[in-house]
Amino acid sequence: MSTSATKTVASRNIKHLAQMELTGAGQVYVQGNYANIGHLTNKDRLGTSILDISDPRKPRIVSQIKLDVPSSHSHKARVVGDVMIVNSEMNASALGRKSEVMATARTQLEQQLGRKPTAAELAAKLSVNESDIAVLEASERNPYDQGGFRLYDVSDRTKPKLISFVKTGGRGVHRYDMDANYAYISTEMPGYLGAMLMIYDIRNPSKVEEVSRWWLPGQHTAGGGTPSWPGRRNRCHHALRAGNHLWAGCWMAGVRIIDVTDIRKPKTVGAYNYHPPFVEPTHTFREMPVPIGGRRIAVAIDEEDHALGAEEMESRRGRPHAALWVFDVTDL
What we know:
Order of helices and strands: EEEEEEEHHHEEEEEEEEEEEEHE
Helix content: 10-25%
Largest sheet: 5 strands, antiparallel
Strand content: 35-45%
Radius of gyration: 22 Å
Number of strands: 20
Shape: globular
Distance between the termini: 47 Å
Structural class: mainly beta
């Protein structure tokens, strides 16, 4: 068919009802007549917006939660009953995590040179500009300590009330799941390399209690674990609960199925890793709600990983894109 004869179809069986301009919106979680929205950027320190969508043609903001500090963002929001959980995660930086390896780089150069390295030498070692060293040293002196998640009482959507703030570690909480009893939090924690899974009892949201932890073998470095991968490639991106199992996307470690029949002793009962040969990391893994053709089916989605330098992004030309995977999980 020639270009002139091609008709572009913008939509089919979908009617556009309304549009709202929102700053850097992240996750949208709908419960009843309300949409709870996390914000990916913290312009004006905006963390969470709650919208009344009872009239979908006229959505309106009924409340907004501002962030305490400019170094954090809160781009996820989930609600069960009258409790809302939002994450607290460190903002991304063009310098990445260089400040965390400053001490090691400095020590290596001192051993090599027999003296303290200059700013220029340290910058070369870290592959940054000399002008960046002062910024990294400031971050080294004052590391981020606002990682975690907040619980709000949203019984009155127009006046969310902070119940508690549970601090975790590292860069904080990226994603999570929750139900009326527990929160399944993917976060960095002291003593672990990369994000792992923390399970909390939230039945009393004013007194949240840790129930258990789960991690990939090698992540618990403080406990003697030795990772077989570079950096934070293998980690729990997040886990979603269905029945007595958690379905976890584990970035470059593929997928895991975690049995939580005994919530205090989560254990891995299924695993599949397609990295390599496929190069884009596993983001989300979830069992379908009903059997298909008499089989239990789960799907996984990968994510195009753009947290890379320009040189590495250029090297990706021609490689396979992120994929959708379908698994038969009848036999875990």
